[in-house]
Structure formats: C-alpha cells, structure tokens
Design goal:
Number of strands: 3
Shape: globular
Order of helices and strands: EEEHHHHHHHHHHHHHHHH
CATH class of the largest domain: Mainly Alpha
Strand order of the largest sheet: 1-2-3
Strand content: under 5%
Number of domains: 2
Structural class: mainly alpha
Distance between the termini: 40 Å
C-alpha cells in the first residue's frame, strides 16, 4: 500500500469547493463572486461588497438600503462588553482584545442553533456591524479616553474612522479606507478562512467561528505583515540604501516583507489599486517619505526578484496608507479583521450548506511498541 503524499501546509491541496472568490496568480486576477476586485474597490462600497460575498449577487437598491440600515443600527455594543474591555490590559494587543470581545459577544447573543437561518443572518449583521466598535472602543479606553458612540449617519468605513479619531474623514480618506476594507474582505482559502471553516464544520456558533479566525490572523505569517513592511522601510532608511539592502537580504535569505505571495506570481492587483486610490489621500496629507522609499524598493526589487515571480502584495503599501491617515500601527491587523469578517462569514454560511466535519489524516513518524518503564526504574 502506497503511503499518502505529505504536503507541508496543505500546499496546493483543495480542502473545499467554493463559489465566493477566485484567484489567478499568473494574471493578477482576484474576483469576488466573479467581479474583479479592482472594479469593486473603485465603484462599490464595503457594505455592497459584503452583501455580494454573503449572498452571491450584487444587491438591488432596496436590498442594499435595508442591509445598510441594519448594519448602522447594530453598531452599538453592550455596556457590559465595554466593561469587559475596560478590564483588559492597556498594553495588550488590539487583536487580542478583539478576539476576546467577539468571543464574549456569543454569550450576549446565543446562536448555538446554526440551522436557524434567521438567527444566522442576525449574527452576520451583528458581527460586521460591531467589530469596528470593539476595536475603536479598546483603542480609546487604553489611552484613558471614553469610547465614542457610533453615528448612524455615517457609512461603515467613515463611522469607524470617526469612532477612532472623533473626526469625520474627508471624502478621499473615507474612500481609501472603504477601499482597503473591500480589498481585504476576502481572499480564498487563506489560513484564517480555513480556520473559520474548520471551526464551522463542528457546528460551533458563529461568534466562536469568527473568534477562531481572528486568532489565526494574529500570527505574523498571516496578519501583521503591513506593520513589518514599515519596520523594514525604516531599517533601509533612504533610497540610496535600497539596492545594497536588498542584495544583502537576498544573499542571506532574509524575508522581504510585503514582497511575494503564495499564489500571486505577478504584482498583487490589490496593491495596484491601493496605490492609485492612495494618491488622492496624498494630495491632502503630502506624499510620505516612506511611500517614496517603498516605490524605490519596488523598482529595484523588480530587477532582482521579478524573474522569480516575487512582487509587492497588498501589505506592501496598505500600512503606509493607514499611517498617512493617522491610524496607529497596531490597529492595521484589526482593520484587516474588520474587513475580512465579511469573507469569513460568507465561508461560514457556505460551509453550513453541505457540511462535513474536517478530519484530515496524518503520517505517523513516531515510535512503536515502546515498553512502559515504572517510575522507580527510570534513570
């Protein structure tokens, strides 16, 4: 009998059939339900894109208005949840606070019966609407400030910015933040999405499903790369250092943050559209020096790494954009979660339609027939 092939990290092993998103890594193509993500980032809004991911088609005007109304009126969180957040260490990472907050939400809104479609939809609304409020509340409280009440008159991205800063974003800032949410909303079977589907396959409640996905996203190999891009750029220092730094990094096989992707062998389409939209923000904020440095890194890297299919991914520029609009570094990954919850929930609902619990096999490489030695006889 042939031994099954072992592929570390399940590389290239299909684990589900899905109609939610599609990637062609050679053509720089990412589609949500068949629509190019570049088109959605420029023409749509996060609320509409979330509906598309969840339902499978673009909403009618009436459907979008009703969905938007539901989201706006479920942004507030229980005062006991705020009390819980107050008890968390101010020095803790916002991702840990978000995971704790989402797990606690499941106690306030019991949803154990995942065969109840109405309860499931109510959970979808609450999770998309309340994640930004949890992140903003923790950010304010850790600095000794009171949380800011959500505003029902602002769109999803604009309201999040307001809850963080107590300022309404300019149209350009609101648009680029909304586009960032769209660009991060879904990306096929990545680690956190797989984690959410594994948890969903046990018929766990949706708050546990999303909490598990957030926990997976906290790992530096998944979320947080845009923070590390900024660290890398600051280490490089100036454009004249780029070539030597990259050559040294390549020689010593050092990971170049924001460069390369498991799927894309060309420049990530999300990075391209983010750059285009960021230019509108830079008119207001000025073009950051780190952005100019990043452009030079991309130019030099194209010659050194391009032949190997290594190009910028979405993380390469997103952190610079967030920093330019006044968002602290340790909130970059929570914003990723605020966006990706739409994709996670779409996969949760899809998993439930034809569910089978995940139970993969392993290849055992340990010992056999080892005798038990009584404690007193052990050396």
């Amino acid at each position: 009998m042939n031994e099954p092939e072992f592929r570390p990290g399940l590389a290239d092993v299909p684990v589900a059939e899905s109609a939610i998103s599609f990637i062609d890594g050679k053509r720089a193509r990412l589609e949500y339900r068949g629509i190019a993500v570049e088109t959605l980032a420029k023409e749509s809004c996060f609320e509409e894109t979330a509906w598309l991911l969840l339902k499978g088609d673009l909403p009618t005007q009436r459907e979008l208005a009703a969905f938007d109304h539901q989201l706006r009126h479920h942004r507030r969180i229980k005062y006991k949840l705020i009390d819980l957040i107050k008890c968390l260490p101010e020095t803790g990472h916002p991702m840990d606070a978000l995971q704790a907050g989402v797990a606690a939400m499941g106690m306030f809104y019991p949803a154990r019966d995942v065969s109840n479609e109405q309860n499931n939809w109510d959970s979808v609304i609450r999770l998309i609407a309340k994640l930004p409020t949890i992140v903003a509340a923790f950010h304010r409280l850790r600095h000794g400030d009171a949380p800011i009440t959500p505003r029902d008159d602002l769109a999803h991205a604009a309201n999040f910015y307001y809850m963080l800063t107590e300022q309404e974003p300019s149209p350009a800032v609101a648009k680029v933040l909304d586009a960032c949410l769209i660009l991060h909303a879904e990306h096929t079977m990545n680690a956190s999405t797989f984690s959410s589907r594994v948890t969903a396959s046990t018929l766990a409640n949706p708050y546990t499903v999303i909490s598990s996905a957030i926990g997976t996203l906290t790992g530096p190999l998944h979320g947080g790369a845009n923070e590390q891009v900024l660290d890398m750029l600051e280490e490089i220092g100036s454009p004249e250092n780029v070539h030597a730094w990259l050559e040294d990094a390549i020689q010593h096989k050092k990971k170049i943050m924001g460069m390369g992707h498991r799927v894309y062998k060309v420049k990530d389409p999300r990075a391209t559209v983010l750059q285009e939209l960021a230019e509108h923000v830079f008119v207001e904020t000025g073009r950051p020096k780190l952005y100019q440095l990043a452009v030079e890194v991309e130019r030099v890297a194209a010659g050194l790494l391009g032949p190997k299919g290594i190009y910028p991914n979405v993380d390469f520029y997103s952190g610079i954009v967030y920093l330019s609009i006044g968002i602290p570094r340790d909130l970059f990954t929570p914003i990723f979660a605020i966006a990706r919850v739409a994709g996670w929930l779409a996969h949760w609902l899809e998993q439930l339609k034809n569910n089978r619990i995940f139970r993969p096999e392993q290849i055992y490489v340990g010992k056999h027939d080892v005798p038990y030695v009584p404690l007193e006889q052990r050396p």
